[in-house]
Amino acid sequence: MSSPITSPTQNSRSVVRNHYRQLRQALTTEAQVHAAQQCLTICQKEKVFDSIHTMACYLANDGELDPSYIIEYCWQRQIQVLLPILDPVRAGHLCFMPYERNTPMIANKYGISEPEYQAKKVVAVADIELIFTPLVAFDANGNRMGMGGGYYDRTLADLKNSSNTRLVGLAHNCQQAESLPVSSWDVPISAIATDRQWLEAPF
After folding, report:
1. Is the pLDDT of residue 1 over 60?
2. Single pTM value for the model
C-alpha cells in the first residue's frame, strides 16, 4: 500500500489517476520486467489458465504492467489470445480480435498498436473466458480505475450479471489504493493480479 491519497470525497478522479500513473511511470525497465515475470508466476499458481481456450489481454502502455509473458505463455499452451481494438462500429467501445505472432498491427488514435479490424474475426465479449484488463489504480473493494476514456466500462457493462467471463485486473502492487471514487457505470473486477499478490473479490 503506497498511497497517501485515500479519500474520494477530497480528491477528484483526475488527481487520483495522475498520482498512480506517476507511480507506475517511475518504475525502471528492470522493475517492469521483473513485475511482468512475477505476475505470470502468480497467475500460474492460481491456475487461471487451466481449462480455458480464450484469453483477452492488452499491450502495455504508459507504465502499465506488461502482460507479454502471459501472452507468450498462452501461445505456448494453444490458448487463443485476443487484443482489444477501438470498435469502428460502436463509438467509445472496444471489440476483441485474435492476436498471433504474425498478426498485422496498426496504431490507433492513441498511438497504441492493435490488430487490423476484420468484422468476421471479432470475438464476442461473452465468449471470452478470461479478460485481463489494464488499470491505473485499484482498491480493496474490487474497484478499478482506468485511464478515463470509459472504453472497458462500456464494453464490459453487459457482463455485470454474467459469470461466464472472468475479469482480472493487472497492476503493479504500488497501484493499490485504500479506496477509490466510484461511479455507477464502473464495472468491478473479480480479481487482481500484481507482481506480489493475487486478490480475489471481495478483497
Report:
1. no
2. 0.88
